[in-house]
Every structure is written in structure tokens, then in C-alpha cells.
Amino acid sequence: SMGTGAINGAPSHVDYLEFARIGAEFFLHESCVRCTPCREGIRQLNKELRRSKDRVHEKSVARSDRILTAMEVGSACGLGQGMPTFLRSILDLYHKNGRTANERDHN
Asked: From CA 99, how far away is CA 97, in angstroms rounded?
């Protein structure tokens, strides 16, 4: 939606999962909690990301994608509609580069 654009910068050695966790935690605190898709979606995504210690499993990806889609189409606010774009882009980078602190330390 209009007005939800943001640019996030990170160093090239970033731990993508940790970056996603920090971003999701930020959105959790910034949500107005008025609409259910945003409130519950962000809460569930935070839970899912905390559960994924060093890697994101396929079941987690499928659950997260369903939550993100529900947020995109059902949220009343720009935050709930825009957060999925942020999280999907970070998780896409994680899947392309497979980079967590643990994976870097063992390569």
C-alpha cells in the first residue's frame, strides 16, 4: 500500500535469520493491534522465527507464507500490508545465500 516503503540496510555478512527476527520484533512493537490479521500475523511470525534457531524448515516456510498472505490481504493498515514484503525479501536472501552466523562459522 502507499506509504509503507522502507529501505533496510545491512552489512554483507549479516545473519539473515537474525535480521528477520529483529525486523519482526520491531513490527510486533509498532503494530496498533487493531486488526486481527496484523496483530496475530506478526505475533505468529515472531513465534515462528524464534522457533527457527539456525535454519528455516520447509514447514515453517509454508506456515509463514500463509500468514504473510493473510496479512497482505486482510490487514487494514500499511504496517500489516507492508511487513510481508520486508520479511519475504529477507527470507528470500536467506534461501539464496543460506547465511546464518552458525553457517558462516562452519564454512
From this structure: 5
